[in-house]
Amino acid sequence: MNELGTHTRIRLDSDRLLHSSAAQRRSLARSVHKIARPWPYLAFGCAGTHLHLSVKSDHREAGELARRLEISLQRRQDYGTPFLKVHRLPFRDQRHVFSSVLYDMRQREHHDLAADPFLEATSAPDLLGARLLGAHLIPRVGELVPELRRRHLLALYGIDDLREAEVWDRPADVIEAALAAFALADLRGSTIDVRNARQVVVYLLGAELSAREVASLVHCSLRTVERLRAVAPPHPAHLRAVRLQLDLRARVNPGVDRGVVV
């Protein structure tokens, strides 16, 4: 058994894109985090046509994870074409682990893709605390890949700082930041993540809009907004993630291709 782990890659037979919209990128991230949760995975990143994942598992276990992930992605996205044979490469040493983890999240740079400026199809926002789904990766990566620092993650975006935003231009910015923080396509429905995202949006918009206007924006009843305004503030981690997403969107220019120097 290789104790260091394995770097895996999956791709569709026709080289079709695995994602082409923010909603699909968030759905893909949900699949990875849900399916890979029982495995000691470290990072992932999807460069349009293929997905890389670093996991501290041997060849067989990494292959089983990839198989289950392919099944989940097919169910969510219905690609209409099978996946190719999984590519697996054992880590040679600790330096290889570090470089692979970083490589997973640098796919936009390697493939000159401007379609994912906020790296939502990678684990970068999770490791920065700007997405809640993969918060469990932070202590794991901190322990197993101590070489990876915050500056490496910020460099992926071409920025040198990220703070919790205190101001924003439009209510729509708050909603989009909340959707990204909770990996949601919209605020419709009643799942726990939708409810938590709504609570943050209602809290951040405060008295800026009427309760009726907010209800229309977050797709819920007037009574729900009034109730959310009356309860305690959102969980600090939820609020922090949305504020970080707001600042990220203010700092990153989607139209500029950014290189990464490590």
Characterize this entry briefly.
The protein contains 12 helices and 4 strands; from the N terminus they run βαββαβαααααααααα.
Gap between N and C termini, in Å?
Answer: 30 Å
Structural class: alpha+beta
Helix content: 40-55%
Overall pLDDT level: 90
Mind telling me the C-alpha Rg? 19 Å
Q: What is the beta-strand fraction? A: 5-15%
Order of helices and strands: EHEEHEHHHHHHHHHH
Largest sheet: 4 strands, antiparallel
> How many DSSP E strands?
4
Shape: globular
Uncertain runs with pLDDT below 50, 5 residues or more?
A: 256-262
| Strand order across the largest sheet | 2-3-1-4
Separate helix tally: 12
Describe the structure.
By secondary structure, this protein is α+β, with helices and mostly antiparallel strands. Helix content is 49%, strand content 8%. A hairpin with a 3-residue loop joins β2 and β3. The longest helix is centred in the first third of the chain and has 19 residues, at 59-77. Residues 256-262 have low confidence and may be disordered.
List the helices and strands and how they pair.
Blueprint: E1 6-11, H1 22-36, E2 41-46, E3 50-55, H2 59-77, E4 87-90, H3 94-105, H4 107-110, H5 124-127, H6 137-144, H7 150-157, H8 171-181, H9 192-205, H10 211-218, H11 222-230, H12 236-251
Antiparallel strand pairs: 1-3, 1-4, 2-3
Helix pairs in contact: 1-2, 8-9, 8-12, 10-11
